[in-house]
Amino acid sequence: MSSVSSRPRWLRRLLLSLVALVVLVPATVGGCVTWVYTGAALSTVGTDFRNELAIPPLAEGSLGPDGTRVFDLEMQSGRKEFRPGQPTETWGFNGDYLGPTLRARRGERVEVRVRNRLPEASTVHWHGMHLPAAMDGGPHQMVDAGADWAPHWTVDQPAATLWYHPHPHGKTEQHVRRGLAGMFLLDDDIADSLALPSTYGVDDLPVIVQDVKFDGSRLDNSHKIFRNAGFLGEQILVNGTLTPYREVGDELVRLRLLNASTARIYNFGLDDNRSFALIGTDGGLVERPSMLDRLQLSPGERAEIVVRMRPGERTVLRGNPLDAGLDFWQQRFSGGDDRFDILELRAAAALRPSPELPAALVAPELPDGADSVRERPFDLSMGGINNVPMAMDRIDLTLTRGETETWVLRNVDGVPHNFHIHDVRFRVVSVNDAPPPPPLAGAKDTVFVGPNSTVRVAVRFDGPADPDTPYMYHCHLLWHEDQGMMGQFVIVEPGQSAGTAPKHEH
Ligand code: C2O
Ligand code: CU
Ligand code: CU
């Protein structure tokens, strides 16, 4: 007989009442906070995967007379039935939501004919692309409602999974969240020579992950109390599909993961915790695959992973609680305790055999910081980068073409932030003085900077120089960017000084 049940019944009752008093009184006092706090964690684990995953159409463009690969993108408003019979107002490129996957090769000259048929001005930025500042599609390259814009450049960087999205200053979160985003894949000879799954839509799947919340016939954009990360949705879309599944017929399936959410960070894993191979990061393939069972991506980051399937099985890509160094409060209110079923892969009863993954992928080529000519501090907080909010007519940094610098990124306010630099691919040198873990060891253009963390990156600015047209660096939690967590740099020739950035976009 246990000691508890041997106590007289009246004594047990009394003890229970005392416990109830001790617990309930403070709970009532703090009732509102508790209610908001517990209401803030979400889970969609156990969802029914009811819709076949959409694959954005592949746009290979058309070859112009001089060999230029020409793409057409029309920004338009539309309506999409994410839920059968319930249309939602959306924006998209060449369609109602998201955009085609553009695809080009290293060495090719490309041109994109952008037509803005939205009711307001916007831009199209080529995230991760190395290109002249005037073609970048940042806030200085506004395209008026009804106007056109045709940027062109030569692709001069390794094979990678890049993306495109609007970048109008102060409105990026809204424009992206309404559906303006798409992938931009780059190919090269090295990647082609490797035995990697590479048939688009078959064993090489784009996985554009966004969180949404529906508000009648609109996509909700409200920021809930205490959520200083920005908008956080309650359901997940992959390529614009709710509760998606995809049938796969190969042993190895490559997923090109893009976190196109405006604020949400994902800690991806498979539901049975099996490991998968990480083969690429933001800027392209890594030196060698590494096996992981979790992979965190903050907004704007990409990763390419390869999953091994077993015949007939179903496996789920899941978003797990974050392990991002957030404090108790931030963890809950930045979505860190949320769990999502994201995408179900359904393997055919018999699978086509896939070759083993190569042990080595690409040679490292980014500067490691040993030749850095200077260090620059970037203190990240909601008050702005180094406490200065973005100003369109202020050039914050003048960088010399060809020089390598070490940028020291520090999160000083404890809110989740990340850091993105236009035009370049950088190498993470250290995270809190330790060598970067595998997901940060490849080429990056966006990196998470956790509370009280310091991330050092080595970055070389290869130009071309343009003293009058700035590129951006910013937090890619898009509401933070819109609030002014952004700065501008120009690239100049040695000895040249910066010109002046136009105050207005036009
Ligand atoms: Cu993905 Cu400055 O942007
Ligand atoms: Cu960018
Ligand atoms: Cu931020």
Could you describe the 3D structure shown?
- This protein is mainly beta and 506 residues long.
- The chain folds into four domains: 7-38; 57-184, Cupredoxins -  blue copper proteins (Immunoglobulin-like, Sandwich), CATH 2.60.40.420; 204-352, Sandwich (Immunoglobulin-like), CATH 2.60.40.420; 375-492, Sandwich (Immunoglobulin-like).
- Helix content is 11%, strand content 39%.
- The strands form seven sheets. It has a seven-stranded mixed beta sheet with strand order 17-16-13-19-24-21-22, with no helix packed on it.
- It binds CU-O-CU linkage and copper (II) ion (CU) (2 copies).
- One copper (II) ion (CU) binds next to loops.
- The site of CU-O-CU linkage (C2O) has 10 residues, from strand 8 and strand 35.
Salient structural properties:
506 residues; mainly beta; Immunoglobulin-like; 4 domains; seven-stranded mixed β-sheet; six-stranded mixed β-sheet; 7 helices; 36 strands; disordered N terminus; binds copper (II) ion
Which ions, cofactors or small ligands are bound in this entry? CU-O-CU linkage, copper (II) ion
**What fraction strand?**
35-45%
Report the structural category.
Answer: mainly beta
The CATH superfamily of the largest domain is: Cupredoxins -  blue copper proteins
Shape: globular
Secondary-structure arrangement, i.e. CATH architecture of the largest domain: Sandwich
Oligomer: single chain
According to DSSP, the number of beta strands is: 36
Highest-level CATH class of the largest domain: Mainly Beta
Mean of all residue-level pLDDT scores = 93
The helix content is: 10-25%
User: Distance N terminus to C terminus?
Assistant: 83 Å
Biggest β-sheet: strands ordered side by side in the sheet: 17-16-13-19-24-21-22
Profile the largest sheet: 7 strands, mixed
Task: Please tally the helical runs, counting DSSP H or I stretches of 4 or more residues.
Answer: 7
Q: Detail the poorly predicted runs.
A: 1-6
Radius of gyration computed on alpha carbons = 24 Å
What is the domain total for the residues? 4
CATH fold-level name of the largest domain: Immunoglobulin-like
